[in-house]
TrEMBL record:
Record-listed NAD(+) binding positions: G11, A12, A13, G14, Q15, I16, G17, N105, Q112, V129, G130, N131
NAD in keyword set: yes
Entry-linked PANTHER family: MALATE DEHYDROGENASE (PTHR23382)
Originating gene: mdh
UniProt GO MF annotations: L-malate dehydrogenase (NAD+) activity
The protein's Enzyme Commission number: 1.1.1.37
Family matches, as InterPro entries: L-lactate/malate_DH, Lactate/malate_DH_C, Lactate/malate_DH_N, Lactate_DH/Glyco_Ohase_4_C, Malate_DH_AS, Malate_DH_type2, NAD(P)-bd_dom_sf
Similarity comment: family membership: Belongs to the LDH/MDH superfamily. MDH type 2 family.
Protein name: Malate dehydrogenase
Residues of the Lactate/malate dehydrogenase C-terminal domain: 156-322
Amino acid sequence: MKAPVRVAVTGAAGQIGYSLLFRIASGDMLGPDQPVILQLLEVPPAMDAVQGVMMELDDCAFPLLAGLQASDQAEEAFKDADYILLVGAKPRGPGMERKDLLEANAAIFSVQGKAMNAVASRDVRVLAVGNPANTNALIAQRNAPDLDPRCFTAMTRLDHNRALAQLANRTGTHVTDIQKLTVWGNHSATQYPDISHAVVDGKAASDLVDQAWLEESFIPTVQQRGAAIIKARGQSSAASAASAAIDHMRDWTLGTPEGDWVSMAIPSDGSYGIAEGIIYSFPVRCSGGRYEIVQDLSIDDFSRERMSATEQELVEERDAVQHLLP
Ligand code: NAI
């Protein structure tokens, strides 16, 4: 058995936290031979609720759970953390504009970025789930100048998984029959789920579906899936978001399957002409605990237009919080 690693999770008493923590502790994220110490962060009013979650974690008697603690101080929760899942965020309140939401979260993520800069492991892997996830990751990153900028990622894996499910349904196949699908850009309604390089059961996906379905059904369904779930369930997606966070961290750490790639929002290095520095979702392959952008994919006009629209939104988000970026 390996030595335990420290996994910090913010928003631990929330909906996603309730689906996520038990899967981390059971080994779904880092494998069946990797013990974990969970370090939970919540706001003071939620500390009672966190105690309840901790009681339940104890009661699962997970063989891999090597330690469990909670705090309302980021520097305690992030101490020596090897993995940090930033789930806690301020939800959009009534009458709140996108800009207000950006600013409210910028305050949270700048404090948390500074805390991880001070106390987290130098090889920490950070995943922002709380929305606006891409820009929250950017804010944390810019407030943590002593950490490698590449430690900071945001989650578009839920969008990627949603796209896999839609394409599998349409083509009468299983998600495991599909490779090389990409979600580009922001985790928002401007994201671009792209099947132009996808392969279904060994055949080009674009030969199996028509353009009308792609434009009128597939892309808007994936883009609007979060809203459809809120409408149906009365609450935002939580178990699927937790599952995607597990997938993101697992693949980053343990590697992507041979012959395939996944979508991760990572600091743009200018690949595909995307503005450098923004946290943009690219196709990536992971191995040895590192991610690399898949290069040299052909980009047609249809894709380019959509990749640019979502890039533009991220540039605007960055500009809206510029005064908060050190
Ligand atoms: P929730 O409201 O049930 O839980 C959020 C928790 O975060 C609450 O317990 C709250 O007390 C806590 N929190 C707030 N500020 C905090 C802070 N400064 N430090 C620590 N904890 C703090 O929300 P839920 O459903 O768990 O969603 C969490 C976030 O994830 C939301 O921002 C949501 O929009 C986002 N989300 C992102 C997805 C993605 O694909 N990237 C998918 C689904 C949700």
